[in-house]
Amino acid sequence: MLSGVPGPGGPAVGLMSSGRKRMARRARLLWPADGADRAGPVGPWPPGAEPPLLRWWRGRGPWIRERREWLCLPAGAALALPGRSVLPLMAACVAVPLVARRLRAGERRRAGERREEAVIGLCGAVAGELRAGSQPARALLVAARGSAALGGEEAAVLAAARFGGDVPAALRSSAREEGAAGLAGMAACWQVAVDGGAGLAAGLDRLEAALRELRDQRERLRAQLAGAWSTVVLLALLPLVALVMGWALGADPLRVLLHTPAGLGCLVVGGLLEAAGLWWAGRIVRAGEEP
């Protein structure tokens, strides 16, 4: 081959070499070595700035999580638009207060469980302070510091303990709140220890063990009933699965359900049967959750 005349692979090799150079230059711009600054902003927003969607979620996310029941309206609109009917949107408006009630009940239940756990911890902390040599009032003041067991009655209970007031009465008043029933047992232990001279630490230990056993029993029941709750959820989703299957087969189930008399009748009867079945199944499972 003559000098200066490229061989058969010359153009391909030149293209591959230039491509590698471009990739290396791009890599140096994206990931500068030794902490050097980039040559310029990469992407649609400046370096270090959050994407607009993430920034919007940080500002609106807590509000949306606190008002999740309003998500029923977009879901109803998503069915109303392809179905060309206002009935799904009206049903979503009716569902908003029902879903809100359900969500608030779940939040109260979780708050009660956290309060119950705090009461168990308070019993153990007071018993530990008593064994360390503290007086009952001093032990309660130290153990209740930073604890959520006393709730809204914390000031009254601590004032009774600090100034020689009626601590059992204050504990019973605090026990009326959700998840704080164990404070009534603590008040009984306190009353017996003050009137009869019994050991308060031993009584609190037994109370803590009983409360832990009740909590563990509830958790075991929930674990055993997880399959039943899964069945309830599956039953709730079956109508949506039927709609999707109808669309997949080329039918228009929303037009039949929302724009024909027979479809409207089936929709009403099926909705009532679905609600009754879910209510009955949920009632059975919740009855099984009772200790």
What is the number of helices? 12
Shape: elongated
Mean residue pLDDT? 79
Query: What letter string, H or E per element, gives the SSE order?
Result: HHHHHHHHHHHH
Number of strands: 0
Termini, distance in Å? 93 Å
**Percent of residues in beta strands:** under 5%
Q: Could you please describe the fold and organization of this structure?
A:
- The structure is a single chain.
- This protein is mostly helical.
- Helix content is 75%, strand content 0%.
- It contains 12 helices and no strands.
- Helix 3 (72-83) runs antiparallel to helix 4 (87-131), helix 4 (87-131) runs antiparallel to helix 9 (200-224) and helix 11 packs across helix 12.
- The radius of gyration is 33 Å and the shape is elongated.
- The protein starts with 9 loop residues before the first helix and ends with a helix.
- The relative contact order is 0.06.
- Residues 1-13 and 33-43 have low confidence and may be disordered.
